[in-house]
Amino acid sequence: MDPYPGRIRPGWAVGWYFIPFANLWKPFVAMKEIWNSSFSPALSPIAPATALLGFWWAARIANNIFVIGLLRKQRRTDDIELYMTINNAMLISTVLSTIAGILFIKIMQQVSARQMDWSGTED
């Protein structure tokens, strides 16, 4: 029996990324559970998230909002100058996406290292 019955199951940890509106917070909750289970299992459901998770999630959400806004504006314009400006602004999206990706890699490296420590195995 699971001591924390409200936990997100492994399939849903991935699946939440594909559910509209829920994908705005549920993947963060899943990642927080993975982090907390790896670093403080006794406090897992109630432990606060590390700042690294918050920065990763903020970069991911900011990128999504930025891209959606630009694409909506781009779709409604016939002005080639505005179209080119919007395309150039997409570079900001690339930066945000890269930051989110780097932070995600850092998170997964730390989680993986911690889980290896728990299991007593080496790479």
Explain what the structure shows.
- The chain is mostly helical.
- The protein folds into 2 domains: 7-45; 50-117.
- The protein is built from 4 helices and no strands.
- The chain has helices at residues 10-15, 26-39, 51-75, 80-119.
- The longest helix is centred in the C-terminal third of the chain and has 40 residues, at 80-119.
- It starts with 9 loop residues before the first helix and ends with a helix.
Shape: elongated
Query: Quick one: biggest sheet?
Result: none
Distance between the termini: 31 Å
**Mean pLDDT level:** 85
Number of helices: 4
Which structural class matches the secondary elements?
mainly alpha
Cα-atom radius of gyration: 18 Å
Task: Jot down its keywords.
123 residues, mainly alpha, 2 domains
Summarize the SSE layout with pairings.
Layout: H1 10-15, H2 26-39, H3 51-75, H4 80-119
Helix pairs in contact: 2-4, 3-4
